[in-house]
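Hi R.,

Here's the chain you asked about this morning:
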Amino acid sequence: MRQKLYLPYIGQRILKTAFAVFLCLVFYYYRGYRGAAMSSEAVITAIICMQPYVHDTRDYAFNRIAGTLIGAFWGFLFLLIVPLFPSITGIPLYALMGLGILVSLYSSVVIRKPDTSGLAAIVFICVVIVYPDVEHPLDQAFHRVLDVLVGTGIAIGVNVFRLPRIKLRDQLFFVRTKDLAPDQLSQIPSVVLFRLNYLNNDGASICLISEHAPAFFMSQISHVRLNAPMIVMDGAAVYDANENLYIARFPMVPASSLWLMDQLSNLGLSYFIYTIHGNRSCIYHRGVMSREERIIFQHMKRSPYRQYLDDDTFLPEDIVYIKIVALKERTESILHDLTDVLAQHGLRAVLRPQAGLPECGSLYFYDAQANTAHAEEYVLRFMQKRNRKLMASEIFSPNGYRTEHDAVHLLHTLNKAYEPLSVLYRIRQKMHKSGT
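And the predicted structure, written out as tokens:
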């Protein structure tokens, strides 16, 4: 089967860089420069200084200017002093140029701006490399500085400029964690966490939806302050990550959970019982722990957000879901045998791959009413207590997580949905009202 080719989208940085280069070329074109006379220094500066964020561009621009001034200063002195000794040519001349590089690099260290050292050395050599074919040393140094200032100024101007956008703070965006990381044993890419944090700090209301308990991602998003609670356990609970508490849970009916445990015990199966009592998430185990279950247990117990208990002190009304881990053939067989009777007891079952154990599957049992659609309605009503105008919007990847690029692309899609271009948004609104 041929793998589909995915081309990365053209980001704003690419577009802005190309436009900044265009402006540099236009600037020198109207100054009468053509061909070899066209300044490449300004263009290179614009490309280097164009960064994803404005503050990064300012930092690069400052380093570029400081390095240019240092290199131009020592290059100017070189062109003033060396002509006083016309006998210095060939290898001795190049040795002095090397010494000038050393002085330029060291000057950056002395003023505690080591990031400017490479640029200082480059500008120095650009100024002196034309010796002895230079008549006006000051002009040579001045034009190098001017070229850098032109490129830097254009890069900052282009990066600061933004088309008018509108922020949709009346939207509640639902995002699945399985679109951000492949499974519960994987890390969410740092670039995704950074963008997620940026959007939340900017006022976006984002509700993460996870098939797993909060422990799956709490250690990863501990520094991200979400503006909306999260849907966890495949819709069986709603969790406030900022306060570390469950604000809602949709447990199994006690009679149904007791019936299910009897059925599993009669089949000779061992299983995990996930409960929420008060604000504590506790996990119990019944039966003889299998090799596969022990592997999972050894990994999961490291999390401070889970509590594994060996006793039977839980209450049936606290059971949120029950989980079986076994070989794929076994879990498929169990699901097939129980499918017809689960609905009669108000239960539903979901079979998923088991992360870290490709030969195994995990079979989850929930209350039939505990699902993500029901939980989304709850979260929307909960959030509407703060903002009555809030509307729900889903940002889902149709194919789920495959590569880091998919997760990054999803966050960019979310960003564009939260902050669309003002003109395009108003056009869409008018088309929607007119029914076209």
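The longest helix spans residues 54-81.

Let me know if you need anything else.
M.
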